[in-house]
Every structure is written in C-alpha cells, then in structure tokens.
Write a structure and sequence with these properties.
The protein has 560 residues and is mainly alpha-helical. It has a domain at 511-549. The protein contains 31 helices and 2 strands. A two-stranded antiparallel ribbon has the order 1-2. A hairpin with a 2-residue loop joins strand 1 and strand 2 (519-524). Helix 23 (371-384) packs antiparallel against helix 24 (387-401). The longest helix is centred in the last third of the chain and has 17 residues, at 533-549. The model has no long low-confidence stretch (mean pLDDT 89). The protein binds one DNA strand of 10 nucleotides through helix 7, helix 9, helix 11, helix 13 and helix 15.
Length: 560
DNA sequence: GTAGGGTTAG
C-alpha cells in the first residue's frame, strides 16, 4: 500500500508526531518500510522521537539498527531518548558510536551527553566532553552551558559552575534556575537567594528551585515564607511544600496543605499523590488514605509505581494487610519499591515466611534487591525467630549481590541473635563491624541481655550507651531494674548515684495516636487529657479483667 | 538544558 500522493514528507512527519498509541506509530513504520523510506533520516528521526514519547525505547533501538547511514539528527534523537528513559550509559555509548562514524556533534547533542555524565557521575568523561564542546568552536549555547552548570554543581564543583554561568552570553530561565540550584546544592542559600534576586524576571521554576533549596537546608520557615509570597503557584510549588512537611515529619501539615491545594484549580499529579499518601501512612490516617486512593482511581487509568508503593505502605502501616496485598497484586507494573513495601508490610505484621517467599518471588522476576529491602528481609527473620535463615540471607546479601552490610543490617542481626539468647555471638558480630556501633546496636544487645538475664554483657552495653547517649534515662533504668531483679542493691545505688551526678532527666513518655473519622486522638501512658478518658479507662479495665480470666499474668518484674 | 516523589533495624 502506498500512501496518498498528496502526502508530503512534512505531512507524514506531522502525522507521526501526533500519534497517541504505539500501535499507530508502528503501523506508520510499516508504511515507511513499504515505501522504501525507512532509510530517510528525517522521517526516521520523527519515528524515533514518536516512539520515545510513547515509552517504546526498544522500537527506537530496532529502527536505528535497520538504518545504514544514520545522520546527526538521528543520533541526537537516540541519545535524547536514552537520557529520557534513564539509560544514560546507552546514551553515552551512542555518542561514542556517533564520533566513531565521523559525525560531528552539534549543540543539540551535548546537553543530553552532559546530563548522562551527570547522572552516572562520570567526572572524567564529563570534563572531557566539556573540552570537546570548547574545541568545536561552536558559539556558546545556552542549553549546553546550562547542562554544564548542572554537571559541575552535582559534583560539588561550584566554582566551575559559576565560571560557566558567568561566561554565558545570554541566560534564560533554565540557566538561572540551574545556577540557583547549584548554590542550593552546595548549601549556600545566601548565594542562591542573591542569584534569585539578581535575576531580571523570576519565573515559577526559579521560585520552586529556591524553595526546594531551603527545604533541603532544613529551613522550613524560609520555604514557607517564599511559598506564601508566590503569586503564581503551580503543581510543583505545592508538591515541593507538601514534601517539605513530610521531610520534616510534619505529616499533619502536609495533609492540611494538600486539602488547601485541592481548593485551588491546580490539580495534583502522581508526585503530589504519592507524597500525600505517604504522609497518611506515617499518620496512620486510614480514612484519609482511603480517600486519596479513591481520588487516584477516579482520576487516572492506572497506578504508577510510586503511588502503588505508597498505597501498599499506607495500608500495611494502617493495619489492612489484605488491602495492601490486593493493591500489590493489582499493580500492572511493579518495581523494587513496590516489592519492598509489600515485603516490609508482611514482615511488620509477623508474616515472616510469607515475607521471605515474597522476596524469593521477586528474585525470580529478576528484580535486583538493594540494601534497604534486605533490612526488611532480616527484620522478617528476627520477628519469625528464623536464626539460620537470617544468617544465610545476611551472608547471601554480600556474596550474591555485593551489598555490604550497613549499620541497620547489623542492627537486625544483633537483634536476631539476641532474641534467641546468642548474646556472645551477637557481641562478636558487633566487634567485627566495619563501622562504629551506634546506640541502636548496643540497645538491641541490652534488650537481649534483659530478656536472657545476662548482667555481664548488659554492663558492657550500658557502658557504651552511657557514652553515646548520656542523657537517655531509659538505659540506666533498664540496668537498674536488672540489678534489682538479681538483688544486687549496691549496684542499683551506684547507678542511681551516677544518674543523679550526671543530671539525667526523665524523658517525655512516648505516645501513640489513632485516627477515627478524620480526627486524630493522641494518648500517653496514664494521661487523662482525652475527653472520653474515663470511658476509655473503663474499657481498659474490662479488657484487663478478661485477660486475667484467660490466665494472663502481667510481667511485673521491672515495675519497682 | 532547570524546579517536586518512595521503603529501613530498637
């Protein structure tokens, strides 16, 4: 079949660009082949770009491979497509191919190449590309220079960023944004603000960049102030601010700001939704989380991996493990984070075996685990008391995936060994660590000592804890209780004296909270602040009575 | 070519 004679090349290019499905694009490729125009660089460039927009990177690679003489534009499209789909190494590979084939790169080639180097942290390659840019003798190009500003600042080489920026003959919003971001990355918010103020006309992106800079620097107040002063906020401004509250554990404010956002005409996108669902997870706000889930389902056809992971995590943290599982199995696309949330949810609810078999299933699907997921795997072993399994997985982590254990993995292992009474082995593991053990590690050991009544090792742990957290009364109290239990009252007096001497204060008691009908209720031990306090305590009394009827004896050894 | 996203041991 020939296409109609009235179709010019330009006509076809336009049709290719406006395709909305891969099937449509592919059928155009069939036509290109039949008409013998599959070697036409201009048309193939359009085809590659169209595929790239539709997430079909494999089709672009195939089409490229069929071409005998791809030109500069085709290479540029390929390199751009790879960067767009997070395959920077392939992008650089095509760049090298291009040079080998004697094609001179243009100003449209370099930004993608430099970005690839930035993503891969290829310092040497990036610097050499900068040299190539200078040697081409092309006039300085604002896109290339912006990419260089970004490249150097991501390496912490702010002076070079500034130099490139200062040499720029003209600067657009992107360039200013990159420079503000460069200073912010270096932690120099004063300079970031100065560049922001120097800029002739600020745009939404530069405001957002600066706000994000303050968020990263931990200056929530400045971020808030800027956000309030903004005249034209877009979805990124709102999301940045919602994320700001999440980063600083002010989840309630995050959800409140989201509500405020919904009263404007700005629509939340995937990033906003995953952030706010995660905030609900941390709050244990099930009703609100469900509402977000509903909103997501109403407004989009499928759930992306970020929102999927956030939902799984939210349902698991709110106690609805079945819902978490349902969400997990319904996901069309799953990545490591989806598996991670699911495995962690299972482990958290005590389903150790299930968590481990889920992990094995993930391996079968050729998803490479990272160090974080191993924390959940080891925690599952701890909660299930699976010592041998835990040891095996701990070793496998390094031997199979080359993941060096971090302090949190040691934490899990120490906890695992301690709970079953292997205290010496735990101490040996602590001594073999590549890093300085922190209070969590010693705390886990102390917990094991308490459980298995080992005063000698407990003393070792407390000695370390007194140095690491001298003001935490909890560890002292625990040791006092242990000595009291062993009737060693002189030791009790000795530690009490140390506490008094060091002025160790009793810390505030921990509290818990629950959401009922979108209202948060907070409780601390023995408090009577809640309006329904009396009623709650009477229910507790009933529960207490029922427990006793079932033969439960409260463990009062440590209540002195 | 610039700006916003995720899970973790006690």
């Amino acid at each position: 079949m020939q296409w109609p004679a009235r179709f010019t090349v330009r006509h076809i290019a336009h049709r290719l660009r406006s395709c909305s499905s891969l099937k449509e694009v592919e059928s155009w490729y069939g036509l290109l082949l039949k008409n013998g125009t599959a070697q036409d660089c201009f048309l193939m460039n359009q085809y590659i770009t169209a595929c790239s927009h539709l997430h079909a990177i494999d089709s672009t690679i195939f089409a490229f491979a069929q071409m005998e003489n791809p030109n500069l534009f085709v290479y540029n499209a390929m390199i751009g497509a790879f960067v767009h789909y997070f395959r920077p190494l392939d992008g650089l590979w095509y760049y090298v191919l291009m040079l080998r084939n004697g094609i001179r790169p243009s100003s449209y080639t370099f930004p993608a190449v430099i970005k690839s180097c930035r993503v891969l942290s290829f310092v040497g390659v990036g610097t050499s590309v900068h040299g190539q840019v200078l040697r081409t003798g092309l006039p300085l190009h604002v896109h290339v220079q912006t990419a260089l500003v970004d490249f150097y600042s991501s390496l912490g080489r702010i002076l070079e960023s500034t130099k490139v920026f200062d040499e720029m003959p003209e600067r657009d919003g992107f360039a200013w944004s990159a420079m503000i971001s460069a200073h912010a990355r270096a932690g120099d918010l004063d300079s970031a603000k100065r560049v922001f103020d120097e800029m002739p006309e600020n745009n939404t992106a530069t405001w957002n960049t600066l706000i994000h800079g303050y968020v990263e620097a931990g200056d929530v107040e400045s971020a808030e102030e800027l956000f309030c002063r903004m005249v034209k906020r877009d979805v990124i401004s709102w999301t940045t601010m919602i994320n700001c509250y999440c980063k600083h554990k002010r989840y309630r404010e995050a959800v409140e700001l989201f509500r405020e956002m919904k009263s404007t005409e700005i629509r939340p996108d995937e990033v906003t939704m995953s952030t706010v669902i995660s905030a609900c997870a941390h709050l244990g706000a099930l009703d609100q989380g469900k509402e977000m889930h509903l909103y997501v389902m109403q407004t989009r056809s499928n759930i992306d991996v970020y929102i999927g992971s956030a939902l799984i995590d939210m349902y698991a943290k709110c106690g609805l493990l079945e819902r978490a599982l349902l969400t997990f199995f319904k996901l069309q696309e799953k990545n490591l984070f989806c598996w991670s949330s699911m495995i962690d949810g299972l482990a958290f609810h005590g389903y150790a075996e299930e968590a481990l078999s889920m992990f094995d299933k993930m391996e079968e699907e050729n998803i490479e685990p990272n160090s974080v997921i191993y924390v959940s795997v080891l925690a599952a072993c701890t909660h299930g008391g699976l010592v041998e399994e835990g040891k095996r997985r701990f070793l496998e982590m390094t031997s199979r995936y080359f993941i060096l254990p971090g302090i949190e993995h040691y934490g899990c292992m120490v906890d695992l060994l301690c709970r079953v009474g292997l205290l010496e082995e735990a101490l040996g593991l602590i001594r073999s660590m590549r890093m300085q053990p922190n209070s969590v590690i010693w705390g886990a050991l102390l917990g094991g000592c308490k459980l298995h009544k080992n005063l000698e090792i407990a003393q070792v742990a407390v000695d370390r804890l007194m140095i690491l957290e001298p003001n935490n009364s909890g560890y002292y109290t625990l040791l006092i209780n242990m000595y009291a239990e062993a009737n060693r009252w002189s030791e009790v007096a000795r530690i009490r004296a140390i506490m008094k001497d060091r002025g160790v204060l009793k810390i505030w008691p921990g509290s818990s909270w629950i959401e009922v009908k979108k209202k948060m209720h907070q409780f601390a031990a023995c408090d009577n602040y809640h309006p329904a306090s009396e009623e709650i305590y009477s229910v507790l009394d009933v529960l207490d009575l029922q427990l006793k009827l079932f033969g439960y004896e409260p463990y009062l050894d440590f209540v002195l």
